[in-house]
Amino acid sequence: MPVTQDRLDWKELKADIGAEVRSSKAELLSGRYAPQLRELLEQRGVLVFPRVDFSSEEQVIFTRTLGDFVADTPDGSAYAITMDPSNRSAALLKGSFFWHFDGYMNDVPILASVMSCRVPAPSGGETEFCNTYAAWDALPDGHKPQLEEMRVVHALASAQLAVEPEPSYATFQKWLQVPRNTLPLVWTHRSGRKSLVIGSSAVNVLDIDPLEGLELLVWLRDWATQDRFTYSHQWSAGDAVIWDNTGTLHRARAYDPASGRLMLRTKLAGEEPVA
Predict the structure, then answer these.
(1) Sequence-ordered list of residues with C-beta below 8 angstroms from that of 163, at least 6 positions apart, any chain
(2) Residue 9 CA from chain centroid, whole number
(3) Which CATH number fits domain 3-87+107-127+234-268: 3.40.50.1700, 3.90.1570.10, 3.60.130.10, 3.40.640.10?
(4) What tens digit of pLDDT does each residue of 185-237 get?
(5) Is the dihedral of CA 14, 249, 233, 114 positive or negative?
(6) How many CB atoms lie within 10 A of CB 92?
(7) CB-CB contact of 134 with 193 (8 Å)
(8) How many CB atoms lie within 10 A of CB 52?
(9) DSSP character for 30?
(10) Angle CA 130–118–255, to nearest 5
(11) Could you please report the per-residue DSSP string of 99-164?
(12) CB-based contacts of 255, cutoff 8 Å, min separation 6
């Protein structure tokens, strides 16, 4: 059944992740319910706005109601995401087909991303999310103390090896030019809640056997991405989705690069370091 909080109309999508928000575009752009939306985002991980039909300018306005907007384009417009061969960044987008969070090279990753659909893929192209808050909460208590002590190296090279398992040495050197970062395996947020810091960028766990560390990272990814913690969004033109980058992983499902799939993305600046 729909749930109403101060006229913010929403319903659960799954028990452990996701909410569909039914407020009008005008209400969303006004910022009137921004505090409730932010609270709901932390609770649910992913908020879906079906066929809200934001223009690029409206998407920026909506993003600004929720926090500090981070521009990815010189003119401050929403950033276009497409695998079309004419896009010079298309090759790097292949990494988005694997579970990840954004900004692992930064001590303060972005808070959230808003994505809207201009042209959906005729087949495939769904975006999947998993709730790493819920995944942490559900872990057996006996596992948690040891995991909280661990630190993990994150690097572009690890994420790109999923795309290109046998790169040339020259290519590998280019990947290494992007700074790596060592982060806690478990993020203790200012709210007191905890989430897992994992994904395709995680290359090794410090101070343990490399294969044992890799085994642990694979196990945790499998745990966090099981059905109970995941939501898959099938895009329709005009849909918008916002996800909490500090407490979820996401990935795109495969689709034909020539399909014309076109998305617009805006981002909210990070507000707390990984700790």
Answers:
(1) 94, 95, 97, 98
(2) 24
(3) 3.60.130.10
(4) 999 999 999 999 999 999 999 999 999 999 999 999 999 999 999 999 999 99
(5) positive
(6) 13
(7) no
(8) 21
(9) H
(10) 60
(11) -B-S-TTSSS--SEEEEEEEE--SS---EEEEEHHHHHHHS-GGGHHHHHT-EEEE-HHHHHHTT-
(12) 83, 121, 123, 124, 125, 261
CA–CA dist 181, 137 (Å, integer): 25
Looking up tokens 């090794």 gives: 204
Is residue 56 within a helix (H) or strand (E), and if so which, with residue range? helix 56-66
How far is 216 from 47, CA to CA, in rounded Å?
A: 30
> Using an 8 Å Cβ cutoff, are 79 and 73 in contact?
yes
Q: Poorest-confidence range of 7-11, 68-72, 168-172, 223-227?
A: 7-11
Let me know if 105 is exposed, middle or buried by CB neighbors in 10 A (0-12, 13-18, 19+). Answer: middle
**d(Cα 101, Cα 31) in Å, to the nearest integer?**
26
Q: Which residue has the tokens 């617009």?
A: 264
Least confident of 18-22, 82-86, 173-177: 82-86
Domain segments of the chain: what residues?
A: 3-87+107-127+234-268, 131-224
Give the predicted TM-score (pTM) of the model. 0.93
Residue 119 sits at φ, ψ, to 5 deg, of -135, 115
The number of CA neighbours under 13 Å toward the Cβ of 232 is 11
Q: Is the pLDDT of residue 144 over 80?
A: yes
